[in-house]
Amino acid sequence: MAGGTLLLGSLDEVRVEVRRSPGATLFSLLRDILGGEPSGVPASWRHAVREALPASAALIGPLLNGSGCPWTPRSLTLVDSARTTSMSTLLRELEELDPQELAAEVARHFGDSAPPFWQRILDDPEAFLAVYVKVVRAAATVIEPLWARADSLFARETEPIGAAVVSGGLDAVLTGLSPSLRYLDGRLRLPRVPAGARPGLDGRRLVLVPLASGFKASMYGVERDDLVWIGYPLPGLGRIVTRAAPAPSQDSALTRILGPIRAGILRASSWEPSVSDLARHLHLSLGTITYHCDQLTAAGLLHRERRGREVRLRLTHRGAELLDLLT
């Protein structure tokens, strides 16, 4: 792509859509926290996520540094399934990734001269993928309440963009997307582009992805054959930023009936955490979490499910119905 410019051509012929992507928001958040790619993540959010991350999170830092690592395997960007809007579905898809497919993707990209970081992935893709899944799941446990709180903002974002497309005002939308992107006369200037990327849309759709991760969040993908996606800060994000770390209301009906600990466990269990994940998320001991999980399991609200070496907690149908009713 010459000069880092994506040729859009006549905007009247560009097919545009807006999608919400939990994976893009999570990946942008982790790029800021672990990769040193500033996205304007609020300090309370950054602190809460850091507290939840496992010690092994540092191992994936190089993957998230766009300056030192300009390429990311499509399977790890968390936006490969562009229509996945549920975090639980996203995490399940990530857990089902084949480590050998990841290794094959890395080998195709680097050939016989993979840099040291990527060579370690080639040597043991299963171990790397296990760490990556654990890190993403820990971040998702913290960010899920914020993602849910931003739902109305996502809904509002689709309306003005749809109106701009119909009225011929798409150029104004593209001009104001992000300070790191520059649009002028049918050309979208991007900070970095992979070698060999196609110089224009060539009939591909342009997918706009609002990111609920930070006030300066910016990501994009130009390698796919079917679409080009552009991530930008979700307008109105400041409305859901609070001084404290993300936490559910303590005055909800669920809390009054079950108590704060069991209510917190049920809320977090919609993302299928482990007992250790819950202990970190709720800042409680493993013994306390285990006791309350046992009581919720006996009541038919929780179910334990073994996945490899870990035991995950998920809501039963009865537990999900109770959560929906009281929240």
UniProtKB/TrEMBL annotation:
Per UniProt, residues of the HTH arsR-type domain are 253-327
Record InterPro entries: ArsR-like_HTH, HTH_ArsR_DNA-bd_dom, WH-like_DNA-bd_sf, WH_DNA-bd_sf
User: Coiled coil where?
Assistant: none
Report what the protein is called: HTH arsR-type domain-containing protein
Q: Where does this protein come from, organism-wise?
A: Nonomuraea composti
